[in-house]
Write a structure and sequence with these properties.
heterodimer, A: 14 helices, 74% helix, B: 4 strands
Amino acid sequence: MRLRSWERFSPRSVDAFLRMLGAALVACVATDAALGVWRVEAGELFPWRHVPGIPLYGDAGLVVEWALTGTAGLALLAGIRRALAVRVGLVGTLLALTQRYSNHRALLLIVLLFVAIAPPNVDAENFASEPRPNIALVRAQLLLVYASSAIGKIAHGFWTGAALTSLFGWGTFARIAAPAVIATEIAAPVMLLLRPRAGLALVVVLHTAMAVLLPSVLPFSLTMVAMSLLFVPTRPEERRGADGLADARQPPPDRASAVAAASLASPRGGSQRLGNAGALRS
Amino acid sequence: MQLRSICRALLILDVGYCAVALVAPRLPGWKMFESAEHVQYTLRAGDGQSVDAYAWVPAAARDLDEMDVVGVARWLCAEHRLPMPLTFDGPHLHRVIEAPDCVDHAAP
């Protein structure tokens, strides 16, 4: 991927990214409900990973948090009031993190924060030609997650398979699967940069497998897939369309100066001037 | 231009934090189950009954470490009034939790 295109995005991929981000927010509420978070707020279960110093806000607080998160998720999924939905989702996610820290919520918070800095409007003219550094940050975040995870796994001996054996009770298969997981985590970002569609397929396979084996990580999987959608390149017609509009409004400086130079050089008609301009450009 | 500067600063912060989290095991980071180990422990109430810490945590808590289990024991002492004292024995920690303050201290 070229540096210039690092900050430029296809409106279709940003649209898909926002919808998938909405699905991740909805999945947060669904997995919370399935995993007994209600019972934590009701005092029946230990508040695991509760941030010290911030009180549990009880059933009523949980209803507010789920309402904010769920509504924001549904709005993003449906493509309604996205700028507002991103900010509401950010508040809901921040509230949830004070009650129970989890990596998938931390990742969602970071991504929502980056998007909320300047929420993209995918219907805007010239979308594909405008730089969007805050959305490029989301791309960078995905690379950081994979790099950190792969380095951490190598450093902590994940490749032996012990962690997978502990998690799933696998035997020999864990020793085969563990290096494959590390290899995939290294290959996925490289592929996303070099062969985005193949990279996206790899990310989908990896995170679908994770979500099937550990359903509680479904929001994380959806967020990672959402982020990887941003690597899908701008299609040629999107680029041409945007550039064409720019041409219609303002001639590029080289063409304008060439026409001016040709008019000074020749007192003859316009066609002759354009011809000269072409000669000057070549 | 201002947006790009903000984004650049955020990126530097982000990369810096990830680097620190890689070398600080207690800091949250993108570890994605880099290590998961079921701690072998015994937790007993004052009447000698065994207590399963996993029965008292949300289903998402798959890998409680020793400090987590001691935390569960303190919470059980404070919220559920199990027969005291609670005694925890793990590979590296041996703690006793007593009512009414429910603070843990080293087992004798």
